[in-house]
Amino acid sequence: MARIKKLRQKGFTIVDNTVIEDTELSWKAKGVFLYLWSKSDDWQFYEVEVAKHAKDGRDSLRSALKELETRGYLRRARDRNDKGQVTTSDWVLSEKPMLENPTQEKPMQENDTLPSTDLTKYLSNQELNNSCSSKQLDETNAFVAYQLSGATLNGKTTPMLTDYVQRLGNDLVCHAIDIMSVQASHPNFSFLQKILDGYEDAGITTVEQAVEAEKLYKDKKRQRQNNWSNRRNNASNEVEWYE
């Protein structure tokens, strides 16, 4: 028998022992619970981001979340609109198993991506499950698409991106992310913000309008370049003729 000596440092998490002593939970599920529980009330949760903080990978994280849900430590419910699309996702994390663990009318698909979620004791997020216009970013969630572009979110930019999604819609934000990933050498929120602000200033509310506006801009730019090239050629000819 070995004794445990604890070397306590600053920065600790207080949690009920129930979840720790639950023999029906795997060590993996317990670890994930403690990690999520340790975060502050205003912490933003992304499955792809959490998966980066351990070597297990995303599939392992998903199985741990499902395990916590099965045992009642996690409850998640999704609301759908008339088209069957997910509109909101509410999460509750509890130190002790919740007696009720209702399931949604349509079960979560294996490949569903977890949305941006305000997490601690109560988690709530807005998930818009529309399709991105991007061929390169095939994720259906703007938050996931943003991170896949190579850009990162923080406590300041996350609510700003959420606000853009709510105002402009998931499809249009995804389209802007696609533009950013192609044009920006280092994708970042400032670059994306310029695109989205440009959409709002121009009254653009759909991907179709954005594509048309971008086409007109490219045509005008090409015309200006052609005019400039013609002026240079004419000037060059005049000089050569004069000489």
UniProtKB/TrEMBL annotation:
It comes from the Bacteria. Residues 225-237 have a biased composition (Low complexity). Coiled coil: none annotated. Gene3D superfamilies: DnaD domain-like. Residues 151-213 form the DnaB/C C-terminal domain. InterPro entries: DnaB/C_C, DnaD, DnaD-like_sf. Residues 101-115 have a biased composition (Polar residues). Residues 79-115, 221-243 are annotated as: Disordered. Belongs to the DnaB/DnaD family. This is Primosome. It comes from Ligilactobacillus apodemi DSM 16634 = JCM 16172.
